[in-house]
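Batch job 17 of 40 flagged for manual review because the log was empty.
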Amino acid sequence: MTDFKRVFVDTTPIIYYLENSPLYSEVIKRFFTMCIEKIYRLLLLP
């Protein structure tokens, strides 16, 4: 991500994170952490 301030996210990664998926939870956690640190606005898609 470069100059973006908004990121559209499908619900699937959130579900993987909440379920602590062995394949995806760490990647998604890093993504969310990066978004928080860079102050990106996450917009969830149903």
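Reviewer: the log was empty due to a logging misconfiguration, but the result itself is present. The chain has a mean pLDDT of 84. Unflagging and moving on to job 18.
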